[in-house]
Amino acid sequence: MIVTDATSVKIVYIARITDVSLWDMLFAEAMEVECAYKFSYAIRRNAELKAQLYKEKEIAWQKARGRDGQEGKPLRSLLSTSLTDVRTG
User: Fold this and answer.
1) Per-residue burial over 2-30, b = 16 or more CB atoms within 10 Å of its CB, e = otherwise
2) What gap in Å lies between CA 49 and CA 46, rounded to an integer?
């Protein structure tokens, strides 16, 4: 429940999704490369492989963040004007 005297309220919903089958494909790929990077040296003792995986993980996270940013923009623009304008007349 939200109690406020404000004319409008901005809400960001954040979920804890523990079922990996529900993750966005790009997020899952980024997480996979992140884990590979973190464990690569301990398993293979190969600094060159770790450096390569570092580059791959940076690219993977950029792609995942880019997708996430694209998904949020239409909702933000909708919430910022049209819904509140209707209520205030």
Assistant:
1) eeeeeeeeeeeeeeeeeeeeeeeebbebb
2) 5
CA angle (65, 69, 19) in 5-degree steps = 60
Q: Is the dihedral of CA 59, 65, 71, 73 positive or negative?
A: negative
Q: What is the pLDDT of residues 18-37, one digit of tens each?
A: 898 998 899 999 999 999 99
Instruction: Identify which of 9, 28, 10, 12 has the alpha carbon closest to the alpha carbon of residue 71.
Output: 12
Kindly list the distances between the CA atom of residue 15 and the CA atoms of 11, 12, 19, 31, in Å, as whole numbers in the listed order: 13, 10, 11, 17
pTM for the full predicted model? 0.59
